[in-house]
Design brief:
Elements: E1 2-4, E2 10-12, E3 22-25, H1 31-42, E4 46-51, H2 54-66, E5 71-75, H3 81-95, E6 100-103, H4 119-140, E7 149-155, H5 166-186, E8 192-198, H6 204-209, H7 213-220, H8 235-242, E9 253-256
Parallel strand pairs: 3-4, 3-6, 4-5, 6-7, 7-8, 8-9
Antiparallel strand pairs: 1-2
Helix pairs in contact: 1-2, 1-8, 3-4, 4-5
């Protein structure tokens, strides 16, 4: 099916598929990143699986290949300026371009108090959550064509900060600002930039922070859906933001939090 635009040109009906796209995902060896890597592969994309440890990347890359798609595993600490450049270089050497960049890698160390925040905690939190996405968008955009997309994975902490998430929340709020600013700069090139503000999902880090079933149930009571999300539940939103189905959407922050207040 297709339609006709105001100029009389044929306009294809958009699809949620990602057939033939080259998708780079940071923090892809587990949790939300792994779920998106496999989801994009099932949607027809080839995937660059990146995280700090190569072994974890290779394991997920093998899962992508088992789904019939190409995969490249690249170890990258996104807080390192030069390693970000190496990730983009390796991707372009293998696939020739980047169609989708998913800035998913993140860390959320908990300081004991405002006065207990160390310079090291501050620096590594800002480096991974903000400097890395900033660097990767700038580099990747040089290898992106019209219709490409950037997806920044943010957190509800960025809009509902607490004393114990203050540095992480600030870093993710900066990432939100980056989403809007990058969308304005790259929009004329038909490169879209959007963010997903994630709520609570069943990930390793969540289970460490809420180690008992009672603690998880108490958190779930505050959500409209009354439950914690599963990693696979981010895939539909990510595919939407990466696909032609969202071709007129940019500079937006989509809340995916089960209806948190």
């Amino acid at each position: 099916m297709s339609g006709v635009d105001e100029r009389g040109s044929q306009v294809a009906v958009p699809t949620l598929r990602a057939d033939g796209k080259v998708v780079v995902i940071t923090g892809a060896s587990r949790g939300l990143g792994r779920a998106m890597a496999l989801g994009f592969a099932e949607g027809g994309a080839d995937v660059v699986v990146s995280s700090r440890r190569l072994a974890g990347c290779e394991a997920v890359a093998d899962e992508v290949r088992a789904l019939g798609r190409k995969a490249l595993a690249v170890a990258c600490h996104v807080g390192d300026w030069n390693q970000c450049a190496d990730l983009v270089t390796a991707t372009v050497a293998e696939f020739g371009r980047i169609d989708v960049l998913v800035n998913n890698a993140g860390i959320a160390p908990v300081p004991p108090s405002l006065s207990g925040i160390t310079e090291e905690l501050y620096a590594k939190t800002m480096d991974v959550n903000f400097k890395g996405p900033l660097r990767l968008i700038g580099l990747a955009a040089e290898h992106m064509g019209p219709g490409s997309a950037v997806i920044n994975i943010s957190s509800v902490a960025s809009i509902r900060p607490s004393p114990f998430t203050v540095v992480y929340a600030a870093a993710k709020a900066a990432q939100n600002a980056l989403t809007v600013a990058a969308a304005r700069e790259l929009g004329p090139r038909d490169i879209r930039v959007n963010g997903i503000i994630c709520g609570t999902f069943h990930t390793d880090s969540f289970h460490r922070s809420a180690p008992t079933e009672e603690a998880r149930e108490n958190l779930a009571k505050n959500l409209s859906l009354g439950r914690i999300g599963y990693p696979e539940e981010i895939v539909g939103t990510a595919l939407y933001l990466a696909s032609d189905a969202s071709s007129y959407l940019t500079g937006q922050l989509v809340r995916l939090d089960g209806g948190g207040s």
